[in-house]
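Pilot study result, target chain (238 residues):
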Amino acid sequence: RYQSEKRLYLGALKYVPHALYKLLENIPMPWESYKEVPVLFHVTGAISFVDQVPKVIEPIYRAQWGTAWLLMRREKRDRRHFKRMRFPPFDDEEPPLDYVDHLLNVEPGEAVQLDLSDDQYELIRDWFYDPQPLSDIRTGGSSQSNPLSKHVYVNGPSYKVWRLSTPIMAQLYELADPLLNAFADKNVRYLFDLPHFLTAKALNAAIPGGPKFEPLFRDVDEDEDWNDFNDISKIIIR
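Predicted structure:
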């Protein structure tokens, strides 16, 4: 079979980077124990693609990562679920693990989710960790049946147009606070400013208290105007 479809498998090789990119793009986030996605596959099984583009609402996504960061810091402090990795992880003679035998029937791990039972998160606790939060808010009925519609407007799963009320934005901002910059002054990180670094490297200058760069062009000797090879007074006889 493989010999007859050799050209097909070789032709699919050039799409493997894109298939890996789509797989990494749709990898489950820490607050998701698993993720169901549509998959596009060739009839011969030569290659498969995850047929989905993940879309998010930026404040919600930042708040979700803020809660994940907070719980990961607690886990690093308490070490309840994970132990430090011991190197080397595999023995030299150990065969690779088979997917069907070791991974196929394993239940996914518990999602990393913060407990939002506090009353201050009452507007976001019901939908904060949904796979596509607030994407179905317009199909939830009138404002009487869905009081959240007074605080939220989302056009749909594409998230092209969205609007969140100030109370919801305040709760999301509080959850995202560990990842947000606490300094409003742009000059607070002046020693780590990339444009300044590039300018200093181009001018072969040193920022006070910052790094010193090697010259961009090492082989150029500005003092040597004439030498044996470019002297116009020499006569070369061949």
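One observation from the pilot: The longest strand covers residues 39-41. A full batch analysis is planned for the follow-on phase.
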